Each structure stands twice: as structure tokens, then as C-alpha cells.
């Protein structure tokens, strides 16, 4: 059943249902731990026609059945175009395969004002089933400025039975006017044992290493494992990169290349200050003596991260990043 397979969300869901005082909640915290699932589960619970107020959705009533089939008339999700299919797939909702027709523009990572305008029509209509109407917005930071402004009035004074569940990985970047209209709902990293049990049940081998690699974010660890990354390959990255081996990263998608290098840089800076790494095992990391070259490298990685979605030539781009990494690591261990 819908998103019931993230067991660590049960307690935050119960808490959210019990504490919700506002018509708009903002789930916030790190990515990769189930923010969207929590927001959607909240929506389902608010719409459920059998659960008592403040209780999670029953999964059996007519409303829950409509919800699970993706056809609930009182539910809308506002997602960037690029996330529509993957988000619906991971929620177990019906979705259309992205249209890969030649000449079609790359799907947007922003939530645009047209989408908000369509939503306003839904917001003004009467609730079809009479219980509530719910809008999930994910990730809220994807609302561009015009879209966010178009949403403000409805978010502040929603008509009738309308409720909002927003979710954000980066709530600091939201317009303050959006943030101030929402009741915050922090979602922390799950307990390590719960995250490991979940990954192992999904068939991930050496789950502990990948969970550490992602900083404790089980959904991200699963995504990496499904993309073919193993713990052994991850732990080999620091030393291979220090030798200038481009192949250490060439199987990763561009945004993951940046992720990996940023985590390596972070761990090396910690090591240079005598602290253990967070993402790589101790034996995997070189022993830097100086932080300065690493800090300069970190700044370069931040710049590169802005283009990580579509580098012009991924091969050359990774080569340049590995050369940069090798130079920084070499300078730091001298
Ligand atoms: Zn129900």
C-alpha cells in the first residue's frame, strides 16, 4: 500500500497528524528520507473517510482506494515536470512514461507559474467528496519566484476545506512569505538500524557502507545501489581519484559524480583536522596534512555543481573534475 514501506515514517506521521494546527504544513529536513512520502501520507489521512481525526489513513475506505489508484478528485500534487514520473513511480501511483520525442525540451526542474494557475482552479472548486481537498507541493524550493508569489494568497487564505502539505530539502531557500504561512514539521534522518533493515529487505548488499556514503539517507542509498554502485566501488573512489583514475567515477551520473567528490572533499577536510570521515571508511581515505588546498577545491566543486545536471560533454567534464581532485589531494598530503 502507498508508501507504507518506509517504516520510519510511522512515528513522524502520527506526530504530524496529532500536532497539525495549520491548514498548511511544511515537512523539512534532509533529502532521501521520505519527505514526499510523508506529505502524501498526510494528504491521504486528511482525505480518509474512515479514520478518526488525527489518525492515519485506513487504506480501505472508498477515499483511500481512489487515492491509491491516483484518481482522488480532491487531491493534487504539484511537482516539477522532471520529477512527475519518478515521484509517482516511487509512490506506487500510476504515471506516464516521459515522452522522449526528439526535439522536446528537457523536462523542467522548476515548478512554474502555469502549474500554480492550474492549481488555483482546483483550489477554488468545491470538495468533490466533501471531506477535504489537499495539495502536496514537492520540493517547495522548486517553486520559482513568480510561481511562489502566485500561490501566496491561496496559501494564506485557503477556501473551504483546502489543506496544503509542502515538503522541502532546503527550506532556508524558500521565500520567507511562504515559510511563514506554514507550520514547520521537521523530518530527521531515520534510526540507523531501521534504515539498514529497510535496505537489506530491498536486497541491497553491504548496506551499511552505502548508508554511510549517503550520510544516513536510505532512499538515496537505495537509488545508488540500483544505479549499480557497490560499497567496494565507493570505498575505492578516494584512492583511485588521488591517482587520477577517471574510471573511478565514469559509471556515475553527473550529479552523483559531484556528490561523491563533495563527500570526499568533506571527509578529507575532517581528516586534515584529525577527525574521522563521515562518508568513507577510515582505511579508504588518504591522510591530508593541510586543509587549504581542499578548501579551494571545495569552492571549485560548488561552482561545478551548478552545471552538474547537464554538462556539455560528460566525459571531458569528469576528466577535468578528476584532474582537479587529484591536484587538490596531492597538494593536501604534501
Ligand atoms: Zn481511508
TrEMBL record:
It comes from Pelomonas aquatica. The keyword Nuclease does not apply. Signal peptide: none annotated. GO terms for molecular function: DNA-directed DNA polymerase activity. The keyword Kinase does not apply. It is an enzyme of class 2 (transferase). This is DNA polymerase-3 subunit delta. Keywords: Nucleotidyltransferase, Transferase. Its EC number is 2.7.7.7. The lineage of its organism: Bacteria, Pseudomonadati, Pseudomonadota, Betaproteobacteria, Burkholderiales. It comes from the Bacteria. InterPro entries: DNA_Rep/Repair_Clamp_Loader (IPR050238), P-loop_NTPase (IPR027417).
Amino acid at each position: 500500500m502507498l508508501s507504507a514501506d518506509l517504516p520510519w515514517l510511522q512515528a513522524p506521521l502520527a506526530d504530524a497528524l496529532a500536532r497539525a494546527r495549520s491548514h498548511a504544513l511544511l515537512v523539512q529536513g534532509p533529502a532521501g528520507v521520505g519527505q514526499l512520502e510523508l506529505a502524501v501520507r498526510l494528504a491521504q489521512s486528511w482525505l480518509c473517510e474512515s479514520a478518526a481525526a488525527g489518525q492515519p489513513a485506513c487504506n480501505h475506505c472508498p477515499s483511500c482506494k481512489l487515492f491509491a489508484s491516483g484518481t482522488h478528485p480532491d487531491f493534487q500534487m504539484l511537482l516539477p515536470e522532471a520529477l512527475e514520473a519518478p515521484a509517482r513511480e516511487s509512490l506506487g501511483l500510476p504515471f506516464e512514461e516521459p515522452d522522449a520525442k526528439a526535439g522536446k525540451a528537457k523536462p523542467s526542474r522548476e515548478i512554474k507559474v502555469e502549474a500554480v494557475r492550474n492549481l488555483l482552479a482546483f483550489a477554488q472548486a468545491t470538495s468533490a467528496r466533501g471531506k477535504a481537498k489537499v495539495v502536496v507541493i514537492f520540493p517547495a524550493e522548486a517553486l520559482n519566484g513568480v510561481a511562489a508569489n502566485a500561490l501566496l494568497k491561496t496559501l494564506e487564505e485557503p477556501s473551504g476545506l483546502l489543506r496544503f502539505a509542502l515538503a522541502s530539502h532546503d527550506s532556508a531557500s524558500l521565500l520567507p512569505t511562504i515559510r511563514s504561512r506554514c507550520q514547520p514539521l521537521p523530518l530527521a534522518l531515520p534510526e540507523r538500524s531501521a534504515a539498514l533493515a529497510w535496505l537489506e529487505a530491498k536486497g541491497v548488499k553491504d548496506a551499511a557502507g552505502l548508508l554511510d556514503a549517503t550520510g544516513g539517507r536510505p532512499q538515496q542509498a537505495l537509488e545508488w545501489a540500483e544505479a549499480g554502485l557497490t560499497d567496494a566501488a565507493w570505498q575505492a573512489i578516494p584512492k583511485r581519484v588521488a591517482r587520477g583514475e577517471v574510471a573511478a567515477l565514469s559509471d556515475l551520473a553527473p550529479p552523483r559524480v559531484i556528490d561523491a567528490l563533495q563527500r570526499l572533499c568533506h571527509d578529507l577536510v575532517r581528516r586534515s583536522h584529525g577527525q574521522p570521515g563521515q562518508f568513507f571508511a577510515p582505511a579508504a581515505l588518504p591522510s591530508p596534512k593541510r586543509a587549504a588546498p581542499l578548501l579551494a577545491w571545495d569552492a571549485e566543486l560548488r561552482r561545478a555543481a551548478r552545471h552538474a545536471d547537464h554538462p556539455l560533454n560528460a566525459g571531458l567534464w569528469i576528466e577535468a573534475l578528476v584532474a582537479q581532485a587529484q591536484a587538490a589531494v596531492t597538494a593536501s598530503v604534501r
